[in-house]
Structure formats: C-alpha cells, structure tokens
Design goal:
mainly alpha, single chain, 8 helices, DNA polymerase, domain 1, flat
C-alpha cells in the first residue's frame, strides 16, 4: 500500500528511490504538516550503553565473540540483547556479575518481551563468565530455552481440505468436536 505513494512523491515532491521505511517517514511528515502546519524530525535512537560496573566483562565477551569468528551482525545482535539483560540485572540491584543467581536469570527472562532472542546470547555470556572465572557458577545451564514452533507442511491440497471438512457431520456433538479439532490443526498449519 505504501508503494502506491511513490509515484506521487516522486512527481509532486521530487522524492526518488524511497524505501518502505523512508516512505513511512515521508507520509508521517506530510500528515503532520497537513494537521499542524509543521513536522518534527525525530532524533535517531541510540542503543543502550553498557553500565560501568559490567563494562570489563562485556567488552571482553565481545572481543571473545570476535576472536571465535562470529559475524559482525551476530555480535551486534548478541550485544543488543545482552545489554538489555545487563540493564535488567542492574535494576535488580546487581552490581557485580559474580552476584548473579538463577533466580535473577529467571526473573529477567520472565520480564523479557523477546524471549526468543534472550536465550542464546545470555547462555553464551554466562558460559563465558564461568569459563573465564568471572562467576563460580555455570549459570548457562539455567538459562531457559524457547523453541520456535515449526509449521508442519501440509500434504493436503485446498480442495482436499475442503472436502474433508464438508463430510463431517456437524449435527452431532462428536462431529462438532471432530470439526473443531480439524480446524485447529489447519490453523496451526497456517501459523
């Protein structure tokens, strides 16, 4: 839908080669301009900075990842999620990573809004802390895992699925139950 605005912006405003993100910004600015007569330029968001009390371990860990051949993009992702976690540890009054307990990891995990990206970086960092004597407990063993569900490929075509649903007798409670179970299975396949 946003791509439809590209010719208009190109023709009327002389704007060329827009990405979807820059189209959104342009549309937001035009909307603000129409409503208020002005628009605001939002400042670029900068990522979290490492807290001073964790800086040494964090920097050493990032160097460790680099020396072990991880891609720059992977290191950035690990760093981003790890910095959020370190800030949460600090909010729990942890000033030294040797003070960490399994309860702290569970609490921060529960609070995390991105559980899928929590486990791998935090587990890796905890293993690093243990192996390099920053922590005398191997807390990597208590970092919860989250598995992403993998959809099961369907072996039925759409017409076969429709035929299957149409032959279920939905006038009985057993038929209604079967129909609901098959619908749930079909929706799970789509997810």
């Amino acid at each position: 839908m946003l791509v439809d605005f590209a010719p208009f912006l190109n023709e009327k405003l002389g704007v060329k080669n827009l990405t979807k993100g820059s189209l959104r910004v342009t549309i937001r600015r035009l909307t603000e301009l129409m409503e208020d007569g002005t628009f605001s330029v939002r400042k670029k968001r900068y990522g979290l900075k490492c807290l001073e009390c964790f800086q040494k371990q964090f920097d050493n860990y990032v160097e460790h990842l680099s020396l072990h051949g991880l891609r720059v993009s992977t290191i950035k992702v690990y760093s981003k999620h790890l910095l959020k976690t370190l800030h949460e540890f600090h909010a729990r009054n942890i000033q030294d990573l040797s003070e960490l307990r399994p309860q702290d990891i569970y609490a921060v995990f529960e609070k995390s809004s991105d559980k899928h990206n929590f486990s791998t970086p935090v587990r890796s960092f905890m293993k690093y802390l243990f192996k390099n004597n920053f922590n005398n407990l191997d807390l990597s063993l208590v970092v919860p895992s989250v598995r992403k569900p993998k959809p099961v490929p369907s072996i039925y075509s759409n017409s076969e699925t429709e035929k299957l649903l149409s032959i279920i007798d939905r006038t009985t409670s057993k038929g209604k139950q079967d129909y609901a179970a098959i619908l749930l299975a079909l929706f799970a396949k789509l997810g």
